């Protein structure tokens, strides 16, 4: 199947509500992950473009009639119009994401083509209902107005694995709070953001509220430390997040970090493993393993170890691997050659460290595209490289355990703490164990982040939370106005 008929080209960047010429002349060339053919190109954003975008964002923020001073109702209406405008473009957004990063089109349609609108509508509802002002009685006898104000200009940096959904994790709550944004997509996935920009224009979002500058890590670093940025929202790898956190620490700039993971899928001795294959796939291999929260360490009771290996081995062997645009495809290619080589390096490492290959483990037989064979390792040492480092590909490590206490200890033996799952026929037992796993979220007999609940990591998986009402709070700054003095105010420190 040919990935595309015509190249998707843009010569301009979406800044200040207009398509403007970029400051530099470099371009980002994008290739199909499935065919390695060129599929389009856009200007490679540079520091000058970030300067222009931040300036436009600040002007929008400071406009006394502008977005931040619109009523909550007006903003919520505009967010719903944006969701409607994205709806119209959803099939094309899903197609572009699928071509660029190898996400199977069936998954791209369900997630990339639908999650942004779901989040925009959810946060539009929260924008209408959230209370941003409260008058309190002070302890010293006076009155205080406590106000939640938009934190200001947000620098949002997103990765390539779910470019539109993860952008919306930031965009929807920040718009609801009255903030404005300069967004930097990853160079691997820039073509989908052109559609987002068109939707922003159609929805009548005021100029400068949403600005998009694609570019690499240097441009991202420049955005993080730009004096016109008030808050940074980052999703990406733990090493990059650490650098960004350090810089934000120096600047005392608020930052939210959604980082890597190496979650555990804990299979208890009463689980219906064979009957849960579809859910197990979603919790361990979704999007070709290029998903941060996946349970890539599968913990199996020793008494049922061979059975678990057989189910996962059968699953991996039966998966439809192919062109990401084919609706039948369950596993597409990696997003880039670099990512393919990285995952192959981990497979080689697993073998050299003595793990047993139960399925896959060889070079992909596909002639073109950055494919990796879905690979299941058995007899994996919980401290080995493949059991500790984030691989970000379709590679699972199945680790045996003897007791539930040992399963918990193995699950928590990780520098990460993002997602995870527990598989059991006894919900109460599963919930009791879930409470003891050191992770930001965890699912029983499935895993899928729900927009109504806070999502994020503990340990090296991040700082702060996105989604849920909690995700909205990250875009507010608090101000207390002491309206009147009480009789004892002068005696207070
Ligand atoms: P990455 O960290 O290399 O890049 C992510 C984004 O940050 C890109 O836009 C990149 O250009 C930019 N960037 C990189 N270094 C930067 C720096 N020093 N300053 C500013 N910007 C910088 O990650 P990736 O390879 O694109 O994405 C995969 C990673 O993202 C995985 O580790 C995965 O677990 C993580 N991820 C986390 C979540 C989550 O919600 N926790 C979700 C998806 C992906």
Note the topology.
Elements: E1 8-9, E2 13-15, E3 18-20, E4 27-31, E5 38-43, H1 47-62, H2 72-101, H3 105-110, H4 115-129, E6 133-137, E7 143-150, E8 153-157, H5 163-177, E9 180-184, H6 191-202, E10 210-212, H7 217-224, E11 231-235, H8 238-251, E12 255-258, E13 264-267, H9 277-284, E14 297-301, H10 305-318, H11 337-352, E15 356-359, E16 375-378, H12 385-388, E17 395-401, H13 404-412, E18 421-423, H14 427-434, E19 443-444, E20 462-463, H15 468-473, E21 476-484
Parallel strand pairs: 1-5, 8-9, 8-11, 9-10, 11-12, 13-14, 13-18, 14-17, 16-17, 18-19
Antiparallel strand pairs: 2-3, 4-5, 6-7, 7-21, 12-20, 15-16
Helix pairs in contact: 2-4, 2-5, 2-6, 4-5
This protein binds nicotinamide-adenine-dinucleotide.
Instruction: Tell me the helix content.
Output: 25-40%
Can you count the helices?
A: 15
- Major β-sheet strand ordering: 15-16-17-14-13-18-19
Radius of gyration: 24 Å
Kindly estimate the percentage of residues that lie in beta strands according to DSSP: 15-25%
Largest sheet: 7 strands, mixed
C-alpha end-to-end distance: 73 Å
Pfam families: Aldedh (PF00171)
Protein name: Aldehyde dehydrogenase
Keywords: Oxidoreductase
Domain Aldehyde dehydrogenase: 19-480
């Amino acid at each position: 199947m040919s990935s595309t008929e015509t190249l998707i080209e843009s010569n301009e960047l979406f800044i200040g509500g207009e398509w403007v010429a970029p400051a530099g002349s470099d371009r980002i060339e994008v290739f199909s992950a499935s065919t390695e053919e060129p599929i389009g190109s856009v200007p490679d954003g540079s520091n000058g473009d970030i300067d222009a975008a931040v300036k436009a964002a600040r002007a929008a923020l400071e406009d006394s009639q502008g977005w931040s001073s619109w009523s909550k109702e007006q903003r919520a209406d505009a967010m719903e119009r944006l969701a409607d405008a994205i709806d119209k473009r959803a099939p094309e957004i899903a197609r572009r994401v699928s071509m660029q990063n190898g996400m199977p089109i069936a998954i791209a349609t369900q997630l990339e083509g639908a999650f942004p609108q779901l989040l925009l509508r959810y946060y539009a509802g929260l924008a209408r209902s959230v209370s941003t002002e409260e008058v309190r009685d002070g302890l010293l006898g006076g009155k205080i107005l406590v106000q939640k104000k938009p934190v200001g200009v947000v620098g949002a940096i997103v990765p390539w694995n779910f470019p539109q959904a993860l952008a919306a994790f930031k965009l929807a709550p920040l718009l609801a709070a009255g903030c404005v944004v300069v967004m930097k997509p990853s160079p691997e996935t820039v073509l989908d953001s052109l559609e987002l920009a068109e939707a922003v224009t159609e929805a009548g979002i005021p100029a400068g509220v949403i600005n998009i500058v694609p570019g690499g890590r240097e441009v991202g670093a420049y955005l993080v430390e730009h004096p016109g940025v008030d808050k940074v929202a980052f999703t990406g790898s733990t090493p990059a997040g650490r650098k960004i956190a350090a810089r934000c620490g120096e600047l005392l700039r608020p930052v939210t970090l959604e980082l890597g993971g190496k979650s555990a899928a804990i299979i208890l001795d009463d689980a219906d493993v064979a009957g849960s294959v579809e859910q197990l796939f979603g919790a361990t291999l979704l999007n070709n393993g290029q998903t941060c929260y996946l349970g890539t360490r599968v913990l199996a009771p020793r008494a049922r170890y061979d059975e678990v290996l057989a189910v996962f081995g059968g699953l991996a062997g039966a998966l439809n691997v192919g062109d990401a645009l084919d609706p039948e495809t369950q596993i597409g290619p990696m997003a880039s050659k670099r990512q393919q080589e990285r995952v192959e390096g981990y497979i080689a490492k697993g073998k050299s460290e003595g793990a047993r290959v139960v399925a896959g483990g060889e070079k992909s037989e596909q002639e073109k595209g950055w494919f990796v064979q879905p690979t299941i390792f058995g007899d994996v040492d919980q401290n080995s490289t493949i059991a500790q480092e984030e691989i970000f590909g379709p590679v699972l490590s199945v680790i045996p355990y003897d007791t539930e206490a040992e399963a918990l200890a193995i699950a928590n033996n990780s520098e990460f703490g993002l997602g995870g799952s527990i598989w059991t026929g006894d919900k109460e037992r599963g919930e009791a164990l879930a409470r003891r796993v050191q992770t930001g979220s965890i699912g029983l007999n499935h895993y899928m982040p729900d927009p109504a609940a806070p999502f994020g990591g503990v340990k090296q998986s991040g700082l702060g939370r996105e989604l849920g009402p909690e995700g909205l709070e990250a875009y507010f700054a608090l101000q207390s106005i002491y309206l009147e003095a009480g009789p004892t105010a002068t005696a207070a420190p």
